Amino acid sequence: MKIFIDTAEIEEIKTAISWGVIDGVTTNPSLIKKAVDKKQGKVSMENYIKEIVKVTPGPVSLEVLGGNAEKMIEEGKLLYRKFSQYGKVVIKIPVNPSIHENDGLEFDGLKAVKQLSNEGIPVNVTLVMSPEQALLAAKAGATYVSPFAGRIDDYIRTKMGIKMGLDFKKESYFDLNLIRMATVEKICNLLQGLNSISEVYRNEHVRKILDTGQDNGVWSGVDLVLKILQIFRNYNFKTEVIAASIRNARQAREVAETGVHIVTMPFDAIKGMIMHIKTVEGMRNFTSDIVPQYRELFSR
Question: Domains in the chain, ordered, with CATH?
């Protein structure tokens, strides 16, 4: 599995690359603006992006701003032309750029993906929230698709009345087993008053409980990644899956267990992968157990 870092902070990128585990970078306009603003006018945005591309050993995803196919294609070509000479550039295109329902732009992201891909420009399709969207993106020729695992976890928790900031933090682990246990308990309480399978099947309260704990058959962000991978393997799509919106080390491990091609995560989540209390304890014990004679071997 490849690991990308999801940031535009050049210091974080360089530090993570120095660890020897980083294969690429994903960014977005907000992350880049925030990082450039910290430089207080000492660097232009264009030069800052150039530096990111130069120092990164693999692909750097740069996102377009346009809301329709024509603008996204134009901007994608511009970004690729400006920065691909400094390293590997991938253009991020939203799977569905619609801001309002039925605005006629639902498929403009896919149109842009198709055109850019046909011209040999690699594309990372972002804001993927369902296996259906991922399937269409792969059909359109996407090099990568980025399902937002963390955001789906947030969405399901919110549907269940679990509030961010009150009941969980953004970086909190999504405990699917706990949610399933709570769902089963609620349904079991309802079943006591039902006498047949048909009554259970028709019962609106049972259906509401089931629907609340999932997103159209997707039970978690990790499950979203797993379902997309299964579809891609069924039809031998060459499109690679980037598990995005990863919030913590455990979630990163769980998407790794699915066999995902790439995971992209923030600096702190990557740091979390190396930490374990027993490792620290072991190092303390090893250090205290070193005999003087062994230490002398390293001073000669």
Answer: 2-161+220-282 (3.20.20.70)
